[in-house]
Amino acid sequence: MKSRMLITGATSGIGAALAARYAGRADLLLAGRRPYEEVAATLPADAHYVVADQSEPERAAAQIGKALADLGWETLDVVVLNAGTGWSGDPATEPAASIRNTLDANLFAAVTLAHALAALLEGGQLVLVGSTARRGAPRFASYAAAKAGLDGLARALSEEWRGKVRVKIVHPGPTATGMHAKAGFHTGRARALFAPPEMMARLIERAIARRRIRRTISFPQYLAAAVTPWRR
Ligand SMILES: NC(=O)c1ccc[n+]([C@@H]2O[C@H](COP(=O)([O-])OP(=O)(O)OC[C@H]3O[C@@H](n4cnc5c(N)ncnc54)[C@H](OP(=O)(O)O)[C@@H]3O)[C@@H](O)[C@H]2O)c1
Question: Per-domain residue ranges for the chain?
């Protein structure tokens, strides 16, 4: 039997590349904020899709819960909470609505979803997509704060769910997706050094396949990625 997998933020970038990697090998429920008609062409043909805008975390969790119930899925083998968004600029000028959206979509939604999916995940694994920005990133203050929060969430859940759900967090480095432009950040020539999203998807798949990873794994800087289920 194929494993059952939920990937959020599967409509572009790393999430879309990850969905493409697992297409045909896993039963996929993919989540995104846009209507199905808008994203259908980018999704694997046999994947299920649910609209869940994480800027409204509780509603998104309810929508994903309903989609799982409609599919009759009572268990999940892997959940990848990958959806992410940011705002770039001088932190002092970031509008309150943007701060709220960044924290809601990246962090609050992940906490809400992780808690809502815990029962279905017994025996499976939860993979959070963090960022190297969690240590601080110029012009991405609230995004960096949200990703640092995700790191804390992963550490906490790893302890809470020990023996029940394996919790991992992957921290990609700069990746050539549309995220920076959506955040209003111009990457300029540095973008040539960014990892392709397909490479990040491959690294995430590798992290999923490993049973236990006890230490941070670093890749060459231009692919800067770290995988930490736990680092004490
Ligand atoms: N790119 C990088 O350099 C980099 C580095 C470190 C970590 N990351 C992390 O990697 C993950 C994937 O990002 P990416 O680079 O692949 O960017 P991306 O191409 O913009 O993909 C982000 C995904 O999240 C979705 N999303 C954004 N806001 C959402 C919301 N409110 N509700 C539901 N879904 C939402 C996007 O939907 P749409 O397709 O509709 O936009 C898209 O599917 C994110 O968690 C990001 O923080 C990225």
Answer: 3-228
The answer to whether residue 223 scores a pLDDT higher than 60 is no
Residue to mutate, 6, 7, 8, 12, ligand 1, most ligand atoms under 8 Å from C-beta: 12
pTM, rounded to two decimals: 0.95
In this structure, which topology does domain 3-228 adopt according to CATH? Rossmann fold (3.40.50)
Long-range contacts (CB closer than 8 Å, 24 or more residues apart) made by 198-202: 198/17, 198/20, 198/21, 199/175, 199/223, 200/14, 200/17, 200/172, 200/175, 200/225, 201/14, 201/17, 201/18, 201/20, 201/21, 202/21
Ligand 1 pocket, 175 CB below 6 A?
A: yes
33 lines ligand 1 (CB under 6 A): yes
Q: Is 143 a catalytic site residue?
A: yes
pLDDT band at 1 (very low <50, low <70, confident <90, very high): confident
